[in-house]
User: Which sequence fits this backbone?
């Protein structure tokens, strides 16, 4: 579908405000995206009209809430082309999804002497849970190196794979660099040695089509708040046969069929992994956010965001004293950089006073910062509602910051 920037920007009420007397330029989309009015209205409608617990009530409000919650699950299934709604597990986000797999699948399938293979560009949420698993069971954590451009060294990946590799954890798109990894190739090679693969799709899922049956990933995780949806809700899409064999991650209500003091019988998929009252409004809002993405279409989204990134990269190349961090040939939406003589945190503060919201820090990817020998980077990240004019404002603000520290 055609990308009409004026219409799309009109869908996001938060964008139409001033900060410090300047029009807001929001370029922190890798941290969280803003929410269109239709998502805000959907969450509000649930609380105003349908607020009730799901699955257990026989009254009308509960029936409506349950129907909308399960409809959102089906929307997500179709969006990712999962085989069955049983494979779609609601969580608090990508982080909890990874912890679920590392605990439930990991404890049952990884043991002493085994190996878990991750990459140098992972977010902390795809590092720490595997470190914790390896510490618990006596396994080893191996790391696929990357080159100066911010691309994985695929020869090293193949060398590190072995019959001891039980799981490969790989980010689909780096939140610190924008690199899009060849996850399809990596999945095939991992499966060839009998390893399972978890793909962290938190950055990728709002920017490119993901067909899980074609990709053949064993586990795929993402968060709604990076996809124009609410915070505090996400999804684990897992292969049914694996989820079925995995023990529950948490115990409580709704994840059981029967409970006695002697024994409990667990619920069927996906409810086995959804203990307690979930983020019902969040899940329903997540479904609406996906419908919003679909209404624009990935062809238009990718074309728009590619133009923005290309424009920003050229502006950066022409800006004296600016060094880009991560220059992969296949990347999207993210411009990470350092500016000579200006700490990224100072830069972020100065830009904020100019109305420009960027992220400054290690981006929960400290090993990436260590690789490049910097304490932090400034990161501008783009979305469907950003414009070239906003990129111009960014670089005007950067020039002002540079002049202040000259």
Assistant:
């Amino acid at each position: 579908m055609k990308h009409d920037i004026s219409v799309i920007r009109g869908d996001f009420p938060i964008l139409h405000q001033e900060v410090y007397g300047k029009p807001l330029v929001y370029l922190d989309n890798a941290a969280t995206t803003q929410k269109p009015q239709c998502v805000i209205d959907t969450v509000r409608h649930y609380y105003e009209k349908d607020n009730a617990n799901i699955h257990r009530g026989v009254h009308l409000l509960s029936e409506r809430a349950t129907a909308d919650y399960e409809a959102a699950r089906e929307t997500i299934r179709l969006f990712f082309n999962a085989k069955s709604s049983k494979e779609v597990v609601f969580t608090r986000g990508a982080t909890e999804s990874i912890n679920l797999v590392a605990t439930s699948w990991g404890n049952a399938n990884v043991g002493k002497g085994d190996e878990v293979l991750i990459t140098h560009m992972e977010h902390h949420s795809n590092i720490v849970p595997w470190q914790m698993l390896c510490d618990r069971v006596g396994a080893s954590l191996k790391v696929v190196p990357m080159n100066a451009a911010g691309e994985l060294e695929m020869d090293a990946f193949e060398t590190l794979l072995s019959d001891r590799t039980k799981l490969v954890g790989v980010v689909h798109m780096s939140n610190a660099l924008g690199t899009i990894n060849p996850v399809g190739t990596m999945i095939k090679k991992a499966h060839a040695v009998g390893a399972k693969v978890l793909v962290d799709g938190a950055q990728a899922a709002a920017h490119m089509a993901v067909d899980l049956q074609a990709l053949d990933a064993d586990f795929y995780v993402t968060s709604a708040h990076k996809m124009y949806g609410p915070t505090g809700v996400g999804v684990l899409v897992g292969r049914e046969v694996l989820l079925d064999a995995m023990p529950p991650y948490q115990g409580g209500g709704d994840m059981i069929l029967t409970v006695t003091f002697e024994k409990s019988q667990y619920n069927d998929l996906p409810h086995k992994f959804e203990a307690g009252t979930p983020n019902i409004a969040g899940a329903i809002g997540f479904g609406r956010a996906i419908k919003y993405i679909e209404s624009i279409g990935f062809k238009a989204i990718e074309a728009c965001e590619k133009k923005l990134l290309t424009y920003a990269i050229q502006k950066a190349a022409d800006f004296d004293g600016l060094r880009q961090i991560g220059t992969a040939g296949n990347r999207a939406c993210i411009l990470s950089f350092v500016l000579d003589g200006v700490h990224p945190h100072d830069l972020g503060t100065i830009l904020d006073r100019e109305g420009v919201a960027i992220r400054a820090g290690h981006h929960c990817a400290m090993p990436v910062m260590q690789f490049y020998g910097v304490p932090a980077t400034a990161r501008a990240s783009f979305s469907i509602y950003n414009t070239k004019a906003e990129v111009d404002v960014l670089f005007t603000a950067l020039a002002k910051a540079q002049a202040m520290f000259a």
Summary: The longest helix spans residues 60-80. The CA atoms of residues 79 and 294 lie 8 Å apart. The first strand starts at residue 18 and ends at 19. The mean pLDDT is 96.
